[in-house]
């Protein structure tokens, strides 16, 4: 009996992100792309001047498999408490893109809740889901906390939908 309960809890936990995604009306399959093999052997620091600051993290990420939008790798690292900074590596060219939305993602949390997956993406989809407050290091006014659905297009993130987090 305990085994059935454990399996039930596990199945529910795995289905929560899928249910939330369906409720938003935005799905990974709506932005599907084919997945390619990596071609770039190194980061192109000449064409990605900001990348040299994060040289070690980016080189480590490029050793991994394609994990976003068919031929990209999302590389991320901490930038303080509740903050994640990320870049997107084009595995065709080795160029690194630093979308402003990923320049310091403020991870959403309150007294009772912490976001497990502040970034969610798939290797076969151009959809990137961001949970928290995007671009907190871009020196603009704070953006509201919530779930942001972005489409990766022409090496930029384009907002598809925003769902504000309900206040406690």
Features:
single chain; about 170 residues; 2 helices; globular; disordered N terminus
Helices and strands in order, then pairings?
Elements: H1 2-24, H2 55-62, E1 72-78, E2 83-90, E3 96-97, E4 105-107, E5 119-121, E6 127-133, E7 146-153, E8 156-164
Antiparallel strand pairs: 1-2, 2-3, 2-4, 4-6, 5-6, 6-7, 7-8
Describe the structure.
There is one protein chain. It contains 2 helices and 8 strands. By secondary structure, the protein is α+β, with helices and mostly antiparallel strands. It has one domain (26-164). Strands 1, 2, 3, 4, 5, 6, 7 and 8 form an 8-stranded antiparallel beta sheet that branches. The termini are far apart. The relative contact order is 0.16. Residues 3-22 have low confidence and may be disordered.
| Shape estimate | globular
Helix content: 10-25%
N/C terminus separation: 36 Å
The SSE string, one letter per element, is HHEEEEEEEE
Structure class: alpha+beta
Give the count of helical stretches: 2
Report the strand count. 8
Poorly predicted ranges: 3-22
Percent in strands: 25-35%
- The Rg value, from CA coordinates, equals 17 Å
Q: Count structural domains.
A: 1
Largest sheet: 8 strands, antiparallel
- Integer average pLDDT: 83
Short description, anyone?
This protein is of the alpha+beta class. Helix content is 18%, strand content 28%.
